[in-house]
Design brief:
This protein is an alpha+beta fold. The chain has one domain (7-242, 253-259). It has helices at 7-21, 56-66, 83-87, 94-97, 110-118, 153-163, 185-191, 201-206, 220-235, 252-259; strands at 28-33, 70-73, 130-135, 146-151, 195-197, 214-218. It has a six-stranded antiparallel sheet. α6 (153-163) crosses α9. The radius of gyration is 19 Å and the shape is globular.
């Protein structure tokens, strides 16, 4: 279980984040469970009907757009997808690890496809047997392992500025390519590190991610740190949306407002 703000505090942080960055969809939480029976105690939880299966990006979209709280086990994921292997609900089969599955689709040759699989961040299989996604405003995961939200590049860079407001660090993010969920919730669940991704073809086609959206996944305590930083930036006049000053105007007057 992650350390950090609890469900009610995250509910407030999600509201503040939405207002500060004017997000279009809901910030959500994601949590892995070792015991499938634990899902029965989560209020308002919806489970797929028998025989129904989804991709993980579809579940994320249902939570962030429709506000649903959803719980899944391994059997709810499509067997031909790589979703379960990313979140640790199964171990990827040889068809995936060998690169055979993606050869002549995303890669010209099997060696490239196999290298893609070897470099993909994954939660190790064997420990977890269920996953729940829920909007932070519902306060049903106490706490989630990670929080996620979608935003434009402009919203994301200002959010990262908020993370750096009090305690600076440089952030480096990975790009897997296709299966970009490995860079977002896969990497964040595995490492408990801030993880920014460019959503892939499948997320856009099946998860309905918009063309201008990026995905941020991070531990709850980092969300609290970023919101504090965004408030500090706002006091300095650095807010979203970022008003364009004009490419043909002398920047001196505008910069003087911040730097004197």
């Amino acid at each position: 279980m992650s350390e950090g703000p609890g469900a009610e505090a995250l509910k407030q942080l999600a509201q503040e984040l939405t207002e500060l960055l004017r997000l279009r969809t809901l910030p959500i939480g994601m949590r892995l469970f070792e015991d499938k029976a634990a899902l029965d105690a989560i209020p308002g939880l919806r489970r797929p009907k028998p025989g129904a299966a989804f991709s993980t990006c579809q579940l994320v979209t249902q939570a962030r757009v429709a506000g649903l709280t959803l719980g899944i086990v391994h059997d709810n994921l499509r067997p031909f997808s790589n979703c379960g292997g990313i979140i640790g609900l199964n171990a990827p089969g040889e068809d995936f690890l060998s690169g055979k599955r993606m050869t002549d689709v995303w890669f010209e040759n099997q060696a490239a496809a196999a290298a893609h699989q070897q470099h993909m961040p994954r939660v190790p299989a064997g420990r977890y047997h269920a996953l729940v996604v829920a909007p932070l405003r519902a306060a049903r995961l106490d706490p989630p392992d990670i929080v996620l939200f979608y935003g434009t590049p402009g919203q994301m860079i200002l959010f990262i500025n908020g993370l750096q407001w009090k305690n600076y660090r440089r952030y480096d993010f990975s790009i897997t390519g296709e299966s970009a969920c490995a860079d977002s919730w896969g990497h964040a669940l595995k490492t408990r590190e801030v993880s920014l991704s460019i959503p892939c073809y499948a997320e856009r086609r099946y998860g309905g991610v918009a063309d201008d959206e990026m995905l941020m996944a991070l531990p709850p305590q980092d969300l609290a740190r970023a919101v504090e930083g965004l408030k500090g930036l706002a006091k300095a006049g650095l807010r979203y949306p970022i008003p364009p000053y004009g490419a043909f105007a002398d920047p001196a007057e505008g910069m003087a407002k911040s730097y004197g």
